[in-house]
Design a protein that fits this description.
Elements: H1 11-14, H2 25-37, H3 42-54, H4 60-66, H5 71-79, H6 98-111, H7 115-135, H8 138-150, E1 155-158, E2 174-177, E3 183-193, E4 200-206, E5 216-222, E6 228-230, E7 244-254, E8 259-260, H9 266-280, H10 283-302, E9 304-305, E10 308-309, H11 314-342, H12 348-373, H13 375-378, H14 385-392, H15 401-411
Parallel strand pairs: 1-4
Antiparallel strand pairs: 2-3, 3-7, 4-5, 5-8, 6-7, 9-10
Helix pairs in contact: 2-11, 3-6, 6-10, 7-8, 7-9, 7-10, 9-12, 10-11, 10-12, 11-12, 12-14, 12-15
The chain binds flavin-adenine dinucleotide.
């Protein structure tokens, strides 16, 4: 057995051999096919069991109310190697292939009732670390990835600005060269997931606004940089246990060695990061959806009205059947997008289709779950209404549903229109 990183608690992660770098195209395709076909894939089941056992938390309702991040849970995930799923073992990661990492995140989403914690892990592993790992220099990767994986540091990804949301390349944060390869960064980033607890920010800023998107560069900016200010945690509708803030940069001095990739490569880096985020960030949400279905089936079996379990009413059974279809569709599209990306095939269409379907299906299913639970679905103490609130963000982050439809339309050859 080849040891994989320091993942010890989830048995099948240790058996995942050989590490990603040594897998050929056929093996990757087989892993992808197994991910699609096996809803009870061992990696997923192990992660589910681990999360259900280690992340069970009877303070969750209150933490959700107070918007409190589960730092002890985060450290448990770090100690189990779950924060380094995709990074090579040499840097402390598990070195998993993409589909195996997503199966693990899906299982965590199924077993952990704190969707905000799964979301935080997903954004860390799939947006922050993946971008750093793909585009960082050897020194940058060696400096930061081991700390991020060990839970000694947290990262956040800063693209969106108050006036640059879907139109992200219209950003106005500037990185001004000031000689000797040094830059000063000035601007404001909005809605930064993990911002309040982050030690490192990936920041997109323009070096030359006249060049439009080709003037954008990417920088690694430590939270300790003078001039960097993180705003207060902003309470939000769902995913309330994931901290979230605006971050401002006022003449933050950064050396050339803090730049990720070449000057002007920011748009390409962002585009690659978004394709991954679009397709994969919702793996946890697919697991969350399965948990919602489990809860709804249990309730429909137990709750009796008119002398029979409500699940015996066709209307209720059909609602749950539709939730199942929503889940299967989401899962299949998620792993199709992952399989294409894993095997190096074009995946932009599959990623946009998966993002759209997974986020919208999860939202629809969470609403159905509330209807099946009646008033209990609406009241916080039964923990069903939280699922609905948590799913709403999925149709916004990583590009709104309208933006996914724009991408799909464009790839289908429809006229591009204004934007
Ligand atoms: C939970 C959550 C976490 C987030 N985390 C991060 C993060 O870590 N880092 C980060 O950089 N950002 C993050 N974001 C920001 C997110 O990426 C943006 O909210 C998103 O890109 C949309 O931008 P906006 O909110 O400004 O909406 P806008 O772009 O202002 O859109 C408003 C409405 O107009 C529609 N619209 C806009 N343009 C078009 C168009 N061309 N065609 C059709 N309709 C259009 C949209 O679909 C939407 O309905 C997060 C957001 C959320 C909700």
């Amino acid at each position: 057995m080849v040891p994989v990183g320091k993942v010890k608690i989830i048995p099948h992660l240790e058996e995942c051999t050989p590490p990603r770098g040594e897998l050929d195209a056929d093996s990757l395709s087989q892993i992808a096919l197994a991910a699609i076909l096996e809803n009870d894939h061992p990696l997923k089941v192990d992660a589910f069991r681990w999360a259900a056992h280690n992340l069970a938390d009877d303070t969750l309702i209150q933490r959700d109310l107070d918007c409190t991040f589960d730092e002890p849970g985060w450290q448990k995930m770090a100690a189990s190697g779950l924060l380094g799923l995709l990074v090579e073992p040499e840097l402390g990661g598990a070195g998993l292939d993409l589909c195996s990492a997503l199966l693990t995140i899906e299982g965590l989403g199924h077993g952990c009732r704190d969707d905000g914690l799964t979301f935080a892990l997903s954004s860390q592993v799939l947006t922050m670390q993946l971008t750093l790992d793909r585009f960082g220099s050897t020194e940058q990767r060696r400096e930061w990835l081991p700390k991020l994986i060990a839970g000694e540091a947290k990262g956040a990804f800063c693209m969106t600005e108050p006036e640059a949301g879907s139109d992200s390349y219209s950003l106005t944060t500037t990185a001004t060269p000031v000689g000797d390869g040094t830059y000063t960064i000035t601007g404001e980033k909005a809605w930064v997931t993990m911002g309040p607890v982050a030690d490192l920010f990936i920041v997109f800023a323009t070096v030359n606004p006249d060049l439009g998107r080709w003037g954008i560069s990417t920088f690694l900016v430590p939270a300790s940089t003078p001039g960097l200010t993180v705003g207060p945690n902003r309470p939000k509708m769902g995913m309330r246990t994931t901290p979230f803030a605006n971050v401002t940069f006022e003449n933050c001095l950064v050396p050339e060695s803090a730049r990720l990739g070449n000057e002007g490569a920011g748009a390409s880096i962002f585009s690659a990061a978004m394709e991954a985020e679009r397709a994969f960030l919702l793996a946890g949400a697919v697991g969350n959806l399965e948990r919602t279905i489990d809860d709804t089936i249990s309730y429909a079996r137990e709750r009796e009205q008119f002398g029979q379990p409500i699940g015996a009413f066709q209307a209720v059974a059909h609602a749950i059947a539709d939730m199942k279809v929503a889940h299967e569709t989401a899962r299949t599209l998620l792993y199709k997008a992952a399989a294409l990306q894993q095997t190096g095939s074009p995946s932009m269409m599959a990623a946009a289709v998966a993002k759209l379907a997974v986020s919208e299906n999860a939202l629809d299913a969470a609403r159905s779950a509330i209807e099946v639970h009646g008033a209990r679905g609406y009241v916080s103490e039964f923990e069903i209404e939280r699922d609905l609130r948590n799913t709403v963000g999925g149709v916004i982050y990583g590009g709104t549903s309208a933006i996914q439809r724009n991408i799909i339309g464009r790839l289908l050859g429809l006229p591009a229109g204004e934007r």
